[in-house]
Automatic annotation (TrEMBL):
Protein name, entry field: Rab-GAP TBC domain-containing protein
Any Pfam family hit: RabGAP-TBC
Species: Vespula germanica (German yellow jacket)
Domain Rab-GAP TBC: 250-474
InterPro entries linked to this entry: Rab-GAP-TBC_dom, Rab-GAP_TBC_sf, TBC1D19
Length: 526
C-alpha cells in the first residue's frame, strides 16, 4: 500500500513538474531558485533541508505553491466536463454552432476589408509609426478616420445566434423560434445549491459593500478598517488561495488591486515588463484592421461613459496590446469550448511565405461592440498600465472569454442564460408568466448584462464588489443570480408594463442598486 502510494506521488510530481515547466512564470522562478541553490545558504552536506529552509525564507516556497495553485485552476478550467442532465447527452452541436459563428465573424471582417479596400494586416508606414509612438501616452489625440468602420457584432447579434441553437434530440417544428433555452441539456444549479456555494452571503456574514460604517470586532473603527487590517496580513503571506478566500467577504478599496493580482497570478516581473514593451513594439510595427475596431469600440463605449471616459488613453494601450498578445491565443483556441478557427493573414506587399504570415489577430480574439468594457473597471485599480494589462488579461482568460463563446461549459454564456431562466421561472413564476403573456423573452432584457459581466451597467464600485465575488468563488454564476435578483427587485413596476420598450426603461438605470445587499437578500430568503 505504501509502495503504491509512493509511486503515485512520484508520477504526480513528475507530471506536475512537466506542466509547470510550460507555465509563463517558470523561467523567472527557475532562475531565482538556481541563484538560491548557488548561494552560500544552501549547504552541500545538507542540501535538502537547507534548500527547503532557504526557499521558505526567500518566499520562493510560497511562489511555488502559488504556481501549483494557478496550474490547478487552469487544469480545472480547461478539462472540467460540463454537467449534463443525462449521461448520454451529446452537446457536440454547441461546438458546431461556435465554429459556424467564428466563420461568420471572420467573413464579416473580410467583408469590411473588401468594402474599404484595406488589408487585414500591413507593415505600418514610418510616418504613422512615428506619430503613434509620439502619442502613445495620449492616444486619444491620435487622429484616424473611423467613419466607415462599424462593430462586427453586438450582444443582440450573439443572442440571435444562441436562439438559433437546435438540439438535434429535441423535437420541434423547424420554423418555431426558441422562447427559452430549456431544450439545451446542461444541468445548472438550483437556488439551494447556490446558497451552499455562496455560503458567506447566504449566512448573512458581515460583508463589505453593505454598510461602510458597519461595526467591527475588536478595536477597529468599522468593518472596512477591520478588513483592511486583515487584508494586509493576507497580502503579507503572498499566498493566492488565502487571498481568494478573503475576497468572498469583499475587498477593501485600497487593497483590491493587489488582492486581484495575487489571486490571478498577475504580479509582474522584469520579463513581463519586457514582454509588454514587445507588444507595444508590435502595435507600432504592424497596422491591422482590428486596431480600428478597437479604437472605434473605445470611442463608442468608454469614451461616452461618465465613469470611464477619463481612462480613454490607457484603454487604447491596453486593448491594442491585447490584440497583439499571442499568449492569449493558445488558452482561447485550445479550450474545449472554443471552435479553434483562426484567420491567417499575409502582410500586404509581402510574398506569401511563412515568415510573412501571421495569425490574425495574434491574440485570436476579434472584438465586438462593448468588448472594451471587460477592461474598463481595472482602470480604477491600477496606476501602472503594465500591471493593469496583465490582471485584465488573466481575468479575461479565466472568465470573460466564456461570455462570448458558444459552449457547453457550466461557466459559459449558454449555461448562464439557462441558469437565469431556471431561477426566474422557479422563484418568480408570476413575473415569468407576465413576460410570456406579453411575448417578451426575459433573456433579451438581461443578456447585455450577462455578456458584459454588468460592466457599463453598474456603477464602478458596485461592479468591483460583484467581481470580487466572481474571483472569490471562482464562478460566473453570481452574474446570472444578480440579473434575476434585479428583475425580482423591480417586479412591481415590471408587472405594470406590457412591451419591451417600457421594460427596458424600468431597468435602464441601475445606479441606485447595491449589489451585496441584493444578493444577500435573495440568498438569505427561504
Amino acid at each position: 500500500m505504501e509502495e503504491s502510494k509512493k509511486n503515485f506521488l512520484e508520477k504526480s510530481a513528475k507530471k506536475l513538474t512537466k506542466n509547470v515547466q510550460n507555465m509563463a512564470n517558470y523561467r523567472s522562478l527557475y532562475n531565482e531558485i538556481q541563484r538560491l541553490v548557488a548561494s552560500t545558504v544552501v549547504k552541500k552536506n545538507d542540501f535538502e533541508n537547507t534548500l527547503v529552509d532557504a526557499l521558505k525564507v526567500n518566499g520562493l516556497e510560497t511562489q511555488l505553491r502559488n504556481t501549483v495553485f494557478h496550474w490547478a485552476r487552469s487544469q480545472d478550467s480547461l478539462k472540467k466536463k460540463p454537467i449534463h442532465l443525462t449521461e448520454n447527452t451529446d452537446l457536440i452541436y454547441l461546438k458546431k454552432v461556435q465554429i459556424q459563428w467564428e466563420r461568420r465573424i471572420q467573413k464579416s471582417l473580410n467583408s469590411i476589408c473588401s468594402e474599404l479596400n484595406i488589408p487585414l494586416a500591413r507593415i505600418r508606414p514610418s510616418a504613422d509609426r512615428e506619430e503613434l509612438g509620439e502619442k502613445w501616452n495620449e492616444l486619444s489625440t491620435y487622429d484616424t478616420d473611423l467613419s466607415k468602420y462599424r462593430p462586427l457584432y453586438a450582444p443582440k447579434d450573439f443572442l440571435e445566434v444562441l436562439f438559433s441553437i437546435r438540439d438535434p434530440a429535441f423535437k420541434k417544428h423547424p420554423e418555431e423560434l426558441n422562447w427559452d433555452f430549456s431544450h439545451i441539456q446542461i444541468r445548472v444549479k438550483t437556488l439551494a445549491e447556490l446558497r451552499c456555494l455562496y455560503v458567506e452571503l447566504a449566512q448573512g456574514m458581515p460583508l463589505l459593500g453593505v454598510n461602510p460604517d458597519m461595526p467591527a470586532a475588536g478595536n477597529f473603527l468599522n468593518l472596512e478598517a477591520e478588513r483592511t487590517h486583515l487584508g494586509e496580513k493576507v497580502l503579507s503571506t503572498n499566498y493566492a488561495p488565502i487571498a481568494q478566500e478573503f475576497l468572498k467577504r469583499g475587498a477593501p478599496r485600497a487593497l483590491r488591486g493587489r488582492l486581484w493580482s495575487l489571486v490571478l497570478g498577475s504580479t509582474i516581473k522584469d520579463n513581463d515588463i519586457e514582454y509588454y514593451d514587445e507588444l507595444k513594439t508590435m502595435v507600432l510595427q504592424y497596422d491591422i484592421v482590428v486596431d480600428k475596431l478597437i479604437i472605434k469600440d473605445v470611442q463608442l463605449t468608454a469614451s461616452n461613459d461618465d465613469q470611464y471616459f477619463v481612462f480613454e488613453d490607457v484603454l487604447y494601450k491596453t486593448m491594442l496590446c491585447f490584440s497583439r498578445d499571442s499568449e492569449v491565443l493558445t488558452p482561447v483556441t485550445t479550450d474545449r469550448s472554443a471552435g479553434g478557427q483562426v484567420i491567417h493573414a499575409v502582410l500586404q506587399g509581402k510574398p506569401a511565405t511563412l515568415e510573412n504570415t501571421l495569425v490574425f489577430p495574434p491574440s485570436g480574439v476579434i472584438p465586438f461592440h462593448g468588448f472594451t468594457m471587460y477592461a474598463t473597471p481595472f482602470c480604477y485599480l491600477y496606476d501602472d498600465p503594465c500591471i493593469m494589462y496583465y490582471t485584465f488579461r488573466a481575468f479575461y482568460l479565466r472568465y470573460w472569454f466564456r461570455l462570448h463563446t458558444v459552449s457547453s461549459h457550466e461557466q459559459g454564456i449558454v449555461a448562464l442564460c439557462l441558469l437565469f431562466e431556471r431561477l426566474l421561472q422557479c422563484h418568480e413564476p408570476l413575473l415569468w408568466a407576465h413576460f410570456k403573456n406579453i411575448h417578451l423573452q426575459p433573456i433579451k432584457i438581461v443578456f447585455k448584462w450577462l455578456m458584459r459581466g454588468f460592466s457599463g451597467h453598474l456603477p464602478p464600485e458596485q461592479l468591483l464588489c460583484l467581481w470580487d465575488l466572481v474571483l472569490g468563488y471562482d464562478s460566473l454564476e453570481i452574474i446570472a443570480l444578480l440579473a434575476v435578483t434585479i428583475l425580482s427587485f423591480r417586479k412591481e413596476n415590471l408587472m405594470q408594463v406590457n412591451n419591451q420598450h417600457n421594460v427596458e426603461a424600468i431597468l435602464a438605470d441601475l445606479s441606485s442598486l447595491k449589489v451585496i445587499p441584493l444578493l444577500q437578500l435573495v440568498l438569505l430568503k427561504e
